[in-house]
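Good morning,

Both structures are done.
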Amino acid sequence: MIRASEDNEYYELSSPTILPKASGFLWNEQMMIHMNCRGYAVAQFMQPEPAKYSYAPNLEAKTFMQPEQPYYAHHPGRFVYVKDEENGELFSAPYEPVRNPPDHYTFAVGKHNIVWTIEKNGIAIEMTLSLPKDEPMELWRVKVTNLSAARRSISIYPYFTIGYMSWMNQSGEYKEALQGIVATAVTPYQKYQDYAKIKHLKDKTFLLADHAPASWEVNQEAFEGEGGISSPSALKSKRLAQGEARYETPVAAMQYSLDLDAGEEREYRFVFGPARSEREIAEIRRELFLDTDAAGEDGFVRAEREYAQYIAEGRGSIEISTPDADLDNLVNHWLPRQMYYHGQTNRLTTDPQTRNYLQDNMGMSYLKPQTARAAFLTALSQQEASGAMPDGIILHEAAELKYINQVPHTDHCVWLPICLSTYLDETDDYSILDEEVSYAGGLETGPVHEHIDRAVQWLLHERDERGLNYINQGDWCDPMNMVGYRGQGVSGWLTIATAYACMVWADISERSGRTDTAKTFRQAAEETNALVNQYFWDGEWYARGITDDNVVFGISSDKEGRIFINPQGWALLSGAADEEKRQKLMKSVTEQLETPYGVEKLAPSYTAMREDVGRVTQKHPGTAENGAVYNHAAAFYIYGLYAVGEQDDAYRLLRKMLPGPDIEDIIRRGQLPVFIPNYYRGAYKQFPQTAGRSSHLFNTGTVPWVYRCLMDGLFGLQGCREGLQVKPQLPSGWQEATVKRSFRGAELQIEMKRESGVAAIEVYLDGGLAEDGVLKELKPGKQYQVLVKIPAEAVTI
C-alpha cells in the first residue's frame, strides 16, 4: 500500500483511507501548497506578507499552517466530479468529496509534482499538480481515459475551492474572454491608513482553462443545493446553470461533456491562483496557453520543465547506499528537498525567527553555500552594537516583527557560531570572518569576527550573579514564557548552549589565527560548564532551569516535566558531562524519554498550567513542546550522541524519525516518509492511544541538524581546514556502506567496509593511506576513489 517508485522519484500510496492525512508539498519562492492525498489543500502566497487565494468557508487567521490539520467537508480543495451521463452514477477524484471508493487509487508524491491516478467503473482520472518556478499559481493537468470496451458518455466537473473571501466585498463570474472564472474581493480593513496597503493586493482568484467548458457554476450554494458538497444538486441537471456569485461565496466549477471511444483519452489543463487585475490574468493566459515556441511548446509546458529544473538544483551533497533502503530514500531524495525548501523560501515569511533563519541556512551550507553566506551577513547586519541579536530577521522593507518575534527570547546569539561553523566546514571560506558588516542602525561597522565576538560576549554578560543565563520570556523553547519574565529566572539549557557556543567559536578563532580570542572563549566554556554542574546537575540528569522564584525545575522531584531532553544532549556537546554523568543521563533519557517513535522533549507531559513555567504547560499533553517527540530537539540529542561516540544509540533514535519500515508504524504515524515532521505525538506512557501521530508540519529546524548528524556523525565526512576529515560511526549492525560526497567542487566515491584485522579506521585516497583520515588537496572538478576500512565488530540484530 505504501512504497517508493522504482526510480525513487515518487513515494506512492495506494489507498485514500489507510492514511487519510498523507500529504506532499510543493513550493516556489512566492508560494507553498500542502496537498492531502484526498484532495484537500493548504495554500499560501506572499504579497509580501502571507495571503490566501483559496479560503476556508469562514474567516480564518493568517497563520501559516496548523499541526495535525483538521480536514473537514468544506476544507479548501481541488477535486474533479465524474458523472456517467447514461446512469447518473457519480464519483470524485482524488477521493473527496463524494467518497465513492475507487477501483484503483494511487497518490504519488514527487519532487516537482504530485500525481493522483483514480479508476472507477472503467473511467480513469489522472490529476497532476505542478507549479511555475517564480509565480504564485498552480498548474493542473486532468487526463480522462475510457478503460472500458464500450463507448462512454460522461461529464467531468473540475471543482476548485475559492471560499469565503471577504466580509466587505466578494463576487465571482465566468469571463468568456479569459476562458476562466474570476472571483474578486476586497481585503477587509477599517483604518483609512490601511487602504494604501491593501489597494495593491492580489485580491482576485482565477481558474483558467485551456479548453472552453460546456458550462460552469460560480455560486457555491447554488452548486451544492440540497445535496451538499458530496452530492451536489447542480450535477443532476444536464448542464451547470452558469451562475455567478454576488456577495455570495464563490466557487470555480467547470463542466466538460465527453463522448469517449474505447481506449480514448482527453487531457485538460488549468491554472489556479491569485491576481491583481483581469489584465494580469489575461497576460497569464497568453503566456501559458497561447504563446508557443518554434517547437510548438507553450508556456505551460515550459513552466513545468523550469520548475522541475529549479527543484533539481536542491540536490544534496551526499548520496548513500546502506543496509537501510528507506533511510537511503530519505537521504537521497527527500531530506535535501525539505532542507532546500526552508533555505530558499525562509518558510514563506518576511520576518523569520533569527534562530530559524540561521539554522535553515546552516542547512543551505550543504546545498548552496553562497545563499548561506549572504544570509549570515544579512542577519549580522541587524545585530545591535551590544552584540544582541533581534528576535526576527527582516527580509522585506515593508516587513515588521510579528507574533512570536515580538516576545523577547535570549537564545538567538548562540546560533551564530554554531551555524557558521557548518558553513566554514563545507567551504573553508574563512574570508567571511573579515567581511565588514554594519550593525543595526548603520552607525557602526565591524568585521564578522567582531560581530560574533560581541554576540558570544553578550551571552556571557546576560547572566545572574551566579553566572547563569537569563531566560526572559523564552529561549529556544518559545512557550516557556513565564520562567523568567520578572527578570530573575535562568535557563539551564541556554547556559549549557553558551558553553558549547564558546567552544565552537574558540575553535574557529584558533583556526583563523586569533589565538588570544580562542583562549578567552575556551576558558569561558570551562567556567560555564563548571557552573552548569554546580547548579543544574540533579544526580541523574540536568535540570531545565530556575524560575523567577528560585525554584529549580526539570528535576527528579517534579511530578510533571521531570526531565527535558535539551539539557542532556547539549551537555554532551559542551563537555559539561563527564563520562559518569554521560552514562547516567543517557540511561535516564532511554528510560524516561525514549518511545517507539523517538525521544520525547520532556516527560511526563504537563497536564495543567504551571504558572512559573508558562504556556508550554497549557499545550495538550504529548503535542508540540509539551512532551511530543519534537524532532528538532531529538536531532540535537542525536548530534550530541555522535559527538561522544555513541553511534548505536544515535542511529537507533535517528531511524525513529522516519516512519516505518513496518506498515503498522507508518499507519500509526499517518504520513508518508517524504519529509520529517515538526513532531510526532508523545506522552507515550500517559496517552499511548494517540502517541506516534504525525503533526504533518514540514516547517522544522530538524532537517539541517539531521543532515549534520549524517555528515559529522553517521558517515563522518566533515570538512576541516586541511580538507575532508573521514571518521565514520556506522551502527554496529552495518558491515558496509557507500557514499557519494560532493565537497568543495570535488566528487568522492567512498566505500566503507568492516574488515577483520583492522585495529583502527584506515582511510585510503586513490589507493594511498590518508594520514589521520584527512583527505587533503582535493581539486574542484576532480573525481576521487576513497576506501575506508573499519574494525570488524560483532553484528547486532
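Second structure follows.
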Amino acid sequence: MDFKKRTLASLIAIMPLMAQAQFSQNDVNNFAKETTLTFAVVDNFHNKAAGFLGTITLNNQSDVALPAGESDWQLYIHSVRKISTELVAGLNIEHVNGDLHRITPTKNFTGLASGKSLVLEFDAQVWVVAYSDFMPRAFFVSGDNKPAIFANTDSEDMTQFVAPFERENQLRRYNEPKDLTVLVTPQVRFERNQQTTSQVSQQDALKRIIPKPQKVEFNRGTATLDSSWQITFQGQLKNEVMVFMQDLQDDYGLTLKAQPDHIKLAKEKLISLKVNPQLADGKSESYTLEIDDDRIEIVGSDNAGVFYAMQSLLNLLPANSQGTVDIPQLEIEDSPRYTWRGMHYDNGRNYHGKDAMFKLVEQMARYKMNKLHWHFSEDEGWRLEIPGLPELTDIGGYRCFDLEERECLLTQLGTGPFKSGSGNGYLTRSEFVELLKFAKDRHIQIIPEIEGPGHARASIKAMEARYHKLADEAQRVAKNKLVNKKNAGKETQQVDISAATQYLLSDPKDTSVYMTVQNYKDNSMNVCMDSTYAFLDKVTYELQQMYREAGVQLTNLHFGGDEVGAGSWVGSPICQAMFADPNNGVAGAADLKPYFTQRVAKLLEKRGISPGAWEDGLMYDQTNPFKRDEFPNKTFTANVWDNIWEWGVADRAYRLANAGYQVILSHGTHLYFDHPYEAHPEERGYYWATRYTDTKKAFNYMPDDVYANADYTRTREPIDNLEALVGRPLPKLEKPENILGMQGQVWSETIRTEEQVLAMIFPRILSVAERAWHKAPWEGEQVDRKSQEQDWAQFSAAVGLKELTKLANAGITLHLPVPGGVINNGQLEVNTPFTYLNTEYSLDNGASWQQYTAPISVSEQQSVALRSSLDSKLKSRITHIN
C-alpha cells in the first residue's frame, strides 16, 4: 500500500458512513469545557495479571447534547494501557497507535443529553495502581472544527480527572499471583526510617563529602575561607579555574582573584592548583586535596582530577553560607571507582526545555559524574535540529492532532491536540553546541542516542513527510517538463524522486504487522534499505560537526537496538529480495538485527566513533550475544538494563562482558528513576521493573556483584536462591575489566515538565554518583548490614542537612520524601529518610502548619497531616494519620 492510499484509508476509517457535521466550533468548545471526563480503575483483579477493568465517565454539564446514532464527532484519549474493549454503550473504541485511542458513535448509540452522565466500562492490558498511569488532555472534535480539550483533563493534577485509589483491587496490581507489595502508610514509612539507628552529628554531616573519597583524614582546626584568599594555578587549568571562581561567587558570595603560577604572589592565603600525571600511578581523574589554615593545595593526575578536587572543596561548604565560611582542615587522596559514571536522560518521549538539560549537567559535575547519555530520538519525538533535515524537528519535534502527520507527529503521552501542548520542542543546533561547551568545561561527555531500528517512529514519520514534500515537488517539475509534447494529454513524464527517497526509512510496500511493547505498529526503520544507513550517516556527520564546533570529539554514539517489534520487515518486498539473494548472508528475518548492527558498527568505525546499544539489541536470543568479532570496533558499549530476575536474563551483564563488550550497568530494579519513590498511587512513574525505587535502594546497589542485588521478584516475593529461581547455572564474570561503570536512567513517558523530570532524578542521582565513584566496604555477597546502615546514615544526613538545600538553590525542583509518623501512647513521632530535613505537622487539616522538632502530645484519634519542608516553597506530598 503506498503512502497516499494509506493516508486516505486512515481518513476513511475515522468517518462513519453517511455522517454529517453535527456541531459548530462553539458547540465543540462548550461541550469540552463543561463536560468532565473521568478515568477510574474498577478492578485490577479482573483478569489475574493480564489486565484491569476501568471506566471512563462523561458528565455532560454543557448545553450541548450528543445525538443518538451515528454522527461525526470523535473523542480521543491517551491511554498507555491498550484498551481491548471495542464496543460499549453504542460507542466504538479504537486503538489508533501508541497510547492514542478514539471513541466514535455507532447507530446503536442512545445519545448523551445535557445534564446526564455516561459510563463506559472497558477492559485494558496490564494493571493500573498510580494516577500517573492515566494521561491528561483528552479531547473532542467534530467535522472540520478545531479540537477542544476536556477542561478538567488539561492539568498535571491527576486527581482532577482520575478517581481515587482506595480499595485493595485498586491499590494492588493483581491477586493471581498475589501482589505482596507493602502498601505505604505513615506507620510503614516511620518503621522503615527507624531502621537507620546510627546517630550522625551536624558537624559530621557537614564533613561528609558526596561521593565519599577513598581516603580522608580530618585534622584539628578549620580554615576560614573568604574573599581575601587568592588562587594560583598551572596554566592548563584556566578553564577549570574559571568555572570554580564562578561557582564560588554565584553560590557562596566569594570573589577570589586568580593568577597563573608563573606570577609570584605574596604569601597570602592561597589555593594552589596543579597537575601531576604521576599522581595515583597515573590513574585518570585522581586528586589530592589538603586544607590548612592559610593554604589549600590541590593536585590532580589530570585536569579532571583537579576539577573533582574543587567539587570536594565546594561540597564541604555549608549550604546558604555567604562571604565567609569555615571548612575543616583535612587531607584527601581520591580516585574514582569507575571511569563511566553516568545518567541517561530520555528527552525523546517528552521535551522538558533547554534549562533542564543545563541544570542536569551542572549538578552531575558537582557530584563527579562524567557521562550524559542523551536519548534525543524516540517514537514520540526528535529533539535536536539537524541541518539539511528540517523535517526531523519541524515534524518530529511536535505532536498534535494531525492524522496524516504532515505537520506534526500523532499526539501521544498526554500532549493533547495542539503543538503548544506539553512535551513538544527541541534543542536548536546552536543550543546543543552551547550545551556541549558547558559540559566540556565540567568534564562531562555527552553520548547522543539515535534510536534504531525500533523506537524510531519520529524519524520514520519525519522522513515520510520529507518524501511526500519532495516527491510532490518532483511531480510538479515533471509535469512542466513533459518529454513528449504530443502525448501531453497522457502526461507522459519522467519523475526523479531520488532526492525524496534519499533518507527514507520505510518501505512503501511493506505489509508487515507487529505491535510493540508501547503499542506501536510502525516504528521500525527498514534495515534492508540503503537509505536507512544514509540517514544514520547524515545525522552522525552533522553531530560530528556540532561536537567539533564545541571543541570536543564525538567518540561514542548509541544507536538503541532495543525492543524491536516481532514481525518487523517480514512483509517488506525489499527485505524479501535480500532473503532471496544467497550471497549476502541474510537468509531470513532473524538475520536482520545482526545485519543492521554490523552495518551501523562499520559506519561508525569509519568515523572513529565507538557504538553503543541496549543489551537486547546485541542478543541472538536470551543467552547468546552477537559474535563480538563481527564488529571492527575496539570499544562497543552495552547498556544492561533487564535484571528482572525471574525473567531469566539478569545474567546478561556478565555474558556480554565475557563476550568482549564493554558493559555499563543500567539495571531497572535499582537504577531506573522513572519508577516511583514509594508504593503509593500519588507517586509518579512506571513500575514494571520494581514497585518502587527510593534513594536508599539506589544507594544499596552493588555493581561489583550483580547477583547480590537480587532482592525481590516483581510480585515482591523475597529471593532466597537466585539460581533456583532462574533454573540454570549463572555465569561468573570472567572479564571484570569490561565493566566500565554504571548509570542512572530516567524515561519520560509520564514526565511532561522540567519540574517533574528534575524531581524524578533528584535526589536519587546522588546515590548513583556515590556508588559509581566509591566502593563501600560493606558491599559483597554477604552484606555487612551494620556498616551499610552506618554509611547510609552519614550519607542521608549530609543529603538532608546540606545537599537538598544546595540543589534547591541551584534551581532544582526536588522530590522531598513524605514523612513517616505514628501516635504512640498519645505522642506524635515523625521522621524522614534524611536526618535534618525539616518536617511539619497540621492538626487542622492543613489550615495551619507547625515545624516538628520533638514528639508532641495528641490523642490517639487525632487527625494529623504531615509533610517535609525545605523552604517556604518546596514541600513534600502531604500524608495523613487517622
